[in-house]
Each structure stands twice: as C-alpha cells, then as structure tokens.
C-alpha cells in the first residue's frame, strides 16, 4: 500500500489555512499547527502496490498473531506534550496476550516510537506493512489481534459510506508529514481479507475510534441502560464486510478532548481504554463473555484516577490513568451481530 513514486506537493489546512506538505500517496494530511486533518484529492493515475514484509518483521506464522502499536508523539506536536500511556499500554497488552491467551511471544509484532530499529517504528509505511503481515495467508482457526494506542482523527467523508459524514483515522508517528491512515484503508487491509474461521479483535485506544475499522454493526448502551446493536452499514450500499471471517473492535466513544495526567517519575501511566479492557478481562477467572468484558464501562466510570496495577515486565508500578483519548463509554463493533451475553470471549 505504498506508492510507486511521485513528488510531494503543498496544500492548505482547511481549519487554520497553514501550508502543509503532502506526501505523494496521501489521501489526507494532518496539520502540525492545529492537528486538524484535511482530505487531499489524489490523481486517478496513482498506482498503489501491496507492501512487502521488512527484514525486521517476525517470520513465525502461528495461528495466534498480534500487532501492538503505541505512539507518544514525543517532540512531534507543536505546542503539545507527548501522550502518557501508549508505551505501557503495549506492554500490558503483550503480557495479557502471552500469559492469559497463550500468544507466542515471537508472533507478536510491536511498533513503538521509542525503538532504535527503524523497521519497528510506528511510521505510516511500517503500520501499513504490519497490518498486511497480520492477515497475510490467514486461514481457519487463526486468532488475530490489532491494538493501537495513540492519536485518532476525523476527516470529512467523500464517498458516502459514513452515517455521520466523517471518516475516522489513526495517526502514525509521521502523521504530520505523511498523513493519517483512514478507516477505508484499515478496512481493506485487515477486515476484507478475513476468510471463514478467522477472528480478528482490534482494541483501539484513541479519540474518534468508534468506527475506525468501518464495521457494519455497533453495540453500545442505549437510553434504557442495556447494550443494543445498531446497523451502521453504509447507505451507499458499499460492502465493508469480511471474506467470511469475523472482525470485532473494542473502542470508545469520546468527545475528542485530550486529557493528560501527570505522574511522578517513579510511576507509570496507562491509557484509560486499554487499562479498562485489561482489567475487565483479568477480573474474569472463567466463563467470560463479551458482555462481561464490556463491564469495563464500570471501570471507566468508577475507576477514579488511580489503577494500582503492577508494572509490566518488571517496570515501574502503574498508578495513573492517562485518558488521552477522552474515552467516556466503551463500544463494541462487529462485522456481524451476536448475543454478547452468551458468546464466550477468547483471543
């Protein structure tokens, strides 16, 4: 999904009118002045090629594979501090996958912006290649996990496939240079390739993340306090489904307001969304269902400002929750509807 070449050009931010340099293959670009995202019209002659796996990516193809991405954006956002939590979110997720669900350590690909290996940095190109690595050659019985902890964004919809008129996106570490990755591309990359018998779970801790996989059905708390499915299939009739497998996204509703927590140096932070998910799963010793996992809503509402979790991998104790995504309510999206109180949850 990288371009075949071309020259960078300039565009104007639709929010603050700043001049932005646009990468050749970008369909949207993020402004470093105001963080707003502007859609870019691309030439119809642009050729898109599937990415090749870098040398630094795992060669193991077990039936349990995961991509874990954490981005702090340290030193990359003008006038804004770095995010507290994403690096520890990745460590907590890796620990959960390995210890609770038996994921082989060598089948987990981690991209974080504190790594020295350029192949393991969460750039736009590397994230695209990681998504391709995750689903490539998937077959019945595979369990795949995609976790992203960082910034999200919205941009006006162009093709009429969004009920709210906006595409959602995740922001790589070079989003201000190459633009975010839109939900249309994420759907094409890790949802459409899922064949029968394959399950994908995505956990996204970012603002504007509820529709970031463009899944057809959304389950959230209705006015009566019960969980209820809503039909979010595109009005234009566009197919956004899998090739027979199932995709599920655990994300959160947020107003897009970023909040930072400041912790002492001897303590570490985790993101509110990731923390609530991990804690909800860990609290269930057996017979956990999707409905029980969604009790993470109670953790979000009543968890307070501390979490008192042991630090992953022998790190500093985690005592602060950084609600950098502004998450207010967890939501479950899926490529198909099901009874969340009866279906067992397993990764």
Automatic annotation (TrEMBL):
Fetch the InterPro entries from UniProt. Answer: Metacaspase, Pept_C14_caspase
Gene3D superfamilies the UniProt entry points to: 3.40.50.12660
- Cite the Peptidase C14 caspase domain residue spans from the record: 64-336
Report a single Gene Ontology molecular function.
Answer: cysteine-type endopeptidase activity
Q: What are the annotated GO cellular component locations?
A: cytoplasm
- At the top level of its lineage, which domain of life is listed? Eukaryota
What GO terms in the biological process aspect are recorded for it? proteolysis
Name the protein family.
Answer: Belongs to the peptidase C14B family.
Protein name (Swiss-Prot/TrEMBL):
Peptidase C14 caspase domain-containing protein
Q: Which organism is it from?
A: Eleusine coracana subsp. coracana
